[in-house]
Amino acid sequence: MTHRIKKLSLKNKALNAIHPAHWHRGRIQRLEIHSRHLHNHRHVDIYLPPGYDHTPGRHYPVLYMHDGNNLFYKHLAFGHHPWHADQMLDRLINHGLIEPIILVGVFNTPGRVYEYTWTPMPKRRGHTEGGGGHFYAHFLVDELKPRIDRDFRTLTGPEHTGTMGSSLGGLISWYLGLYFPFVFQKVGLISPSLWWGRGHALTEMHKLSTDMQIWLDTGTREGSSRAVEMLKRKLHHKGYQDGHNLGFLLDRGGRHHEHSWGQRLHLPLLFFYGRKELLRVRA
Question: For the chain: N or C, fewer Cβ within 10 A?
Fold first, then answer.
């Protein structure tokens, strides 16, 4: 039996009980960091939840998201289609649907394909592309996370730390879950590019810890649905259970596009940090 999570309508009463004019707002702070592992300079946008500045004794879970330039601002987002992640978080937090979290949006660079892929992909004339994901992973684990934990009030344990991304950002999130479960135990795979490396990502299930929470989704109008369904079956075989430690969505009409991903961002946020009963499951 296949279970799919229905999309929670943004017109749902639970999401609109408080008028936006009365919301308490989070704020976004820019961080600049140089990576020794990647030999480049990075922009990072950090969303601090409503109340962060007024509750000095409180510490927060952290979600690290890739392609961070697509999350908040139209002028920075690919195709000028931001996810409006700050607005979604403000809405969910103000309505008590998720606990307040810190979101860390790590900007991509011209080396995005290299950084977000774990294995090289053969190209023409004996050349390869990609394969630097382990350097990006060590940038996150050895350089960025310690900086975030030092400068902000975070809950530092793996059970409070997540990683999530779309497309190749979903692929690198998968590898971070496989190889760094002692850092990240919440892993969000939004339309992950599992085709990369001729499907190599699907061959490494033996490395997966059973202590993870995994969100997995794809749209029906993109080409990744078969590989995503295969990964879901492998996760079931590993012991993952729908609605417990595995959330899954086949987004009817969903495209491989920032707009589709932003429209369903509330679902993994609810799964990881909030009221799972709002993620209504049907057979």
Answer: N
Which residue ranges make up each domain of the chain? Answer: 4-282
**219-231 pLDDT tens trace:** 999 987 889 999 9
Instruction: Determine whether domain 4-282 maps to CATH 3.40.190.80.
Output: no
Judge whether 34 and 53 are in contact, CB under 8 Å: no
12 has pLDDT over 70: no
Dist CA 98 CA 208 (whole Å)? 27
For residue 278, pLDDT over 50 is answered with yes
CA 132, CA 129: separation in Å to the nearest integer?
9
Amino acid at 64: Y
Q: What angle do CA 122, 214, 10 make, to 5 degrees?
A: 110
Residues 109-163 have pLDDT tens digits of 999 999 999 999 888 777 888 999 999 999 999 999 999 999 999 999 999 999 9
CB 135 within 8 A of CB 151: no
Phi, psi of 279 (to 5 degrees): -90, 80
- Residues forming beta bridges with residue 218, ordered by sequence position: 250
- Tally Cβ neighbours within 10 Å of residue 126: 6
